[in-house]
Write a structure and sequence with these properties.
Strand 16 and strand 17 form a beta hairpin. Helices cover 16% and strands 36% of the residues. It folds into 2 domains: 143 residues, no CATH class; 141 residues, Roll (Nuclear Transport Factor 2, Chain: A), CATH 3.10.450. With 302 residues, it is an alpha+beta fold. It is built from 5 helices and 17 strands. The strands form 4 sheets. Strands 3-4-5-6-7 form a 5-stranded antiparallel sheet, with no helix packed on it.
């Protein structure tokens, strides 16, 4: 193995508003702040969700689910268009359904759907159009962050500040990972390693393609995913080197996303496309663009 380290007001209890202890430090919220949060919930058309399928109470919010003049109504899973369930099965294998809503305008005309699922212990909020075509991964915020920039140090979404605290130095990887890679993927070049919220690991590597290899907290191999990319030589690039329309697509489709890593794919010195690894609300995605920066494909990593 080569080591080239290159408008719905929700009555929110204070504890629920502040999230679970696993997400952030304990903070005291004044009555004034609680009232302001309730107002922000209404203004952002927020939906309260649990941080995990087994956690009681509401700890985070999926925001900007519809416009201020729209109406959101609960809908049964079985009433969703088949294109939505097909999308979920394809992109979030093993997910657990939480709740879904139709979005209608003032004249009761259908505008689209919002679906909330659990995926690998994290809530995911998704917006679809009237035909069930995917539109956007909706941003999530903790209660106190509805009033500010969308994150705070020590919170569930603290990595939005760009400090990439989850990064693990390749030289500091546990021996069970390096041994596994040496035995199973000796030609891979590791390019980045990160710790997951459940203390597992995600490793990015390249070897005639780009791969994400996942291990759980106990060191057991979970899966290996080939990331979406054109064939060719993968070169690490800065976020600023991506085409402007690729950056615009990411901002519109994954609001407040966290940039992890980007690659240009070249053949005979000519750029064929790009692969960008991002995190949106604690779920990681590999997003493929063509040479002009147009969206091609996405694959959910974990």
């Amino acid at each position: 193995m080569k080591y080239r380290f290159k408008p719905l007001i929700i009555n929110v209890a204070v504890a629920a508003v502040m999230g679970m202890a696993s997400c952030q430090k304990e903070v005291t919220v004044s009555a004034t702040d609680t009232a302001a949060i309730q107002t922000a919930v209404a203004q952002t058309q927020a939906i309260a969700v649990s941080i995990s399928a087994t956690t009681a109470g509401d700890s985070v919010y999926v925001i900007n689910t519809c416009s201020a003049h729209s109406r959101r109504d609960s809908v049964a899973f079985g009433s969703l268009p088949s294109s939505i369930t097909d999308y979920l099965n394809t992109n979030y294998s093993g997910y657990t359904f939480q709740k879904a809503f139709t979005i209608k305008d003032a004249s009761s005309t259908l505008q689209g759907y919002v679906v909330i699922i659990q995926f690998n212990g994290n809530p995911v909020g998704l917006k679809f159009d009237t035909g069930g075509k995917f539109v956007q991964v909706l941003e999530q915020r903790e209660g106190r962050d509805l009033l500010g920039s969308g994150h705070h140090e020590g919170g569930c979404f603290q990595n939005r500040d760009g400090k990439q605290r989850d990064t693990v130095a390749l030289s500091s990887l546990p021996s069970f990972i390096t041994t596994y890679f040496a035995s199973n993927y000796p030609q891979d070049t590791l390019v980045r390693a990160a710790k997951t919220r459940d203390s597992g690991y995600i490793l990015l590597s390249k070897n005639n393609g780009l791969f994400a290899t996942i291990f759980n907290a106990s060191g057991s191999f979970v899966s290996r995913i080939e990331l979406p990319a054109q064939k060719g030589k993968a070169n690490s690039i800065d976020q600023s080197a991506l085409p402007a329309n690729a950056l615009s697509y990411l901002s519109a489709t994954y609001p407040n996303y966290v940039f992890n890593k980007a690659f240009s794919i070249t053949e005979n010195g000519v750029v064929q496309g790009y692969c960008v690894i991002i995190e949106a609300n604690n779920t990681k995605y590999g997003v493929q663009f063509d040479a002009a920066g147009n969206f091609v494909k996405v694959k959910t990593i974990r």
